[in-house]
Amino acid sequence: MVDTYVEPLAVAAHDIDRYAVVGNPIAHSKSPFIHTAFAKQTQQNISYERVLAPLDGFEATIRSLMQQGFKGVNVTVPFKFEAYALCDHHTEQAKLAGAVNTIKFTEHGIWGDNTDGDGLIADITHNLNTPIKGKRVLLLGAGGAAEGVFQPLLAQHPAKLVVANRTLDKAEKMVSKSFDAAIKSVACTFEDLKNQQFDIVINATSAGLSDMALPIPSSVFAENCLAYDMMYGRETPFMVQARASGAQVADGLGMLIEQAAEAFSGWRGVRPETKSVMEMVGAL
Q1: pTM above 0.85, yes or no
Q2: How confident is the model over 146-188, as pLDDT tens digits?
């Protein structure tokens, strides 16, 4: 199912390069607004669409978009691992993550990249002015979103990085990929978080899509903690819990826009400015 957004520039249809975001669910996505704003800002002739892929039909959806002449796609929940497997070539960021959120179709095959980590780091350190170096960081979840940001978080040299997940084996698998043995990275279940406190808590689960509360103790939020939910556009139970615990709370809109700028740059060869787009999308 394709939901087409307004083409950004008044040019003939055959002169427009087509892009899309693919996921399930997808109707909530603000990516079309963001990429349309980027296109206007940088004078790029593109259109950008929402595509709902069946849960068992991701590859078929991608192949169909290729046949229709699309130039590339963004990939969101729950297809980032499938996207990695589908790609013929991967950037170093994608290899480290084992997941793909940005695909480029070329004559040499399908290229996969992961811009989630760059987007998250830029939002936390630049937009929210919160350094990660030396901080105690908790990453909730071990799916594709978490995989995309684990290594970039390590690269910021936190004092420690704990990955908590409902099932321990997935968290342990992620932690085993750590490239820096000097940084303490630990895997645990949500139940193991009792008596632990963190300076930055990042929710990389999709629990917010269904308004599901995570089984984490409120004590994880240290004084002056930043609680960051990678979901956006709604007050999730995680954000409610963190706010009630006195934490500074942020959603993932800034990350979405920053990672979109990286993806746009990979497709078009020009990196757009993000501050004005953040203000525009935040007002929608």
Answers
A1: yes
A2: 999 999 999 999 999 999 999 999 999 999 988 777 788 999 9
| pLDDT tens by residue, 248-272 | 999 999 999 999 999 999 999 999 9
Q: Which CATH architecture has domain 117-252?
A: 3-Layer(aba) Sandwich (3.40)
Residues 6+ apart with CB under 8 A from 28: 233
Q: Is 80 a catalytic residue?
A: yes
What is the rounded CA–CA span in Å between residue 186 and residue 35? 37
The catalytic position among 30, 71, 80, 135 is: 80
Which CATH number does the domain 2-114 belong to among 3.40.50.720, 3.60.10.10, 3.40.720.10, 3.40.50.10860? 3.40.50.10860
Are 2-114 and 117-252 in the same CATH fold?
yes
Q: How far apart are the first and last CA of the chain?
A: 24
Non-local (6+) Cβ contacts of 59 within 8 A are: 82, 86
